[in-house]
């Protein structure tokens, strides 16, 4: 588990310059990784789901928000703000990995209360794979996934759900 998460984070921070997102799939998990629009080398959003329909949403960043701690995250549509509601989530801030004495990678993970990660993921899809996130204590983040990568992720997630329903 830890090894795959480290590989995911390392690959997330080294996406090709022309690609702002990647999609990956294993036998048990689908993952979409999206670089932040303005800080592509410093901030990454990951959304994943497993064969049991458990969603997980994390933001990897370089800002120490007094980890470990709890905070708030607001998700907003980039378009038609009046038509799309914003959503607020509780997030857990944690140290993910210390790279050296000056640099560390932190995570903000949407608290898994059985609906928040799934609601976040569905809102991301509804907003055309684009979202603005306000993480308490930081400037807003903008994430825009490539349609091809996001479509593949959501197809995989739907297949996971239909496979689970057949059992």
Overview of the molecule:
With 167 residues, the chain is of the alpha+beta class. The chain has three helices and nine strands, in the order αβββββββαββα. It has a single domain (2-160), classed as Immunoglobulin-like (Sandwich). A hairpin with a 5-residue loop joins strand 8 (130-135) and strand 9 (141-144).
For this entry, give a set of tags.
about 170 residues, 9-stranded antiparallel beta sheet, about 25% helix
What is the gyration radius calculated from CA atoms?
A: 15 Å
* DSSP summary, beta strand count: 9
Order of helices and strands: HEEEEEEEHEEH
N-to-C span = 25 Å
Overall form? globular
Main beta sheet strand tally, sense and closure = 9 strands, antiparallel
| Strand neighbour order, sheet with most strands | 1-2-3-4-7-6-5-8-9
The average pLDDT score comes to 84
Which CATH top level class fits? Answer: Mainly Beta
Helix and strand content put the structural class at alpha+beta
The helix fraction, in percent, is 25-40%
Q: What CATH architecture do you see?
A: Sandwich
Strand content: 35-45%
Short description:
The protein has 167 residues and is of the alpha+beta class.
Secondary structure layout plus pairing:
Blueprint: H1 2-12, E1 21-25, E2 29-35, E3 44-50, E4 55-61, E5 69-76, E6 87-98, E7 104-110, H2 116-126, E8 130-135, E9 141-144, H3 147-166
Antiparallel strand pairs: 1-2, 2-3, 3-4, 4-7, 5-6, 5-8, 6-7, 8-9
């Amino acid at each position: 588990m830890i090894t795959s998460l480290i590989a995911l984070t390392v690959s997330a921070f080294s996406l090709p310059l022309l690609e702002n997102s990647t999609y990956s799939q294993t036998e048990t998990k689908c993952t979409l990784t999206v670089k932040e629009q303005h800080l592509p080398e410093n901030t990454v959003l990951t959304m994943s789901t497993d064969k049991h329909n458990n969603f997980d949403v994390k933001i990897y960043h370089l800002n120490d928000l007094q980890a470990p701690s709890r905070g708030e995250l607001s998700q907003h549509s980039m378009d038609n703000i009046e038509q799309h509601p914003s959503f607020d989530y509780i997030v857990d801030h944690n140290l993910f990995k210390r790279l050296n004495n000056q640099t560390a990678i932190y995570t903000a993970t949407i608290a898994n209360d059985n609906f928040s990660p799934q609601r976040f993921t569905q809102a991301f899809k509804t907003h055309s794979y684009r979202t603005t996130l306000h993480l308490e204590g930081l400037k807003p983040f903008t994430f825009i996934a490539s349609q091809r990568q996001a479509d593949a992720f959501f197809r995989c997630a739907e297949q996971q759900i239909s496979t689970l329903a057949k059992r």
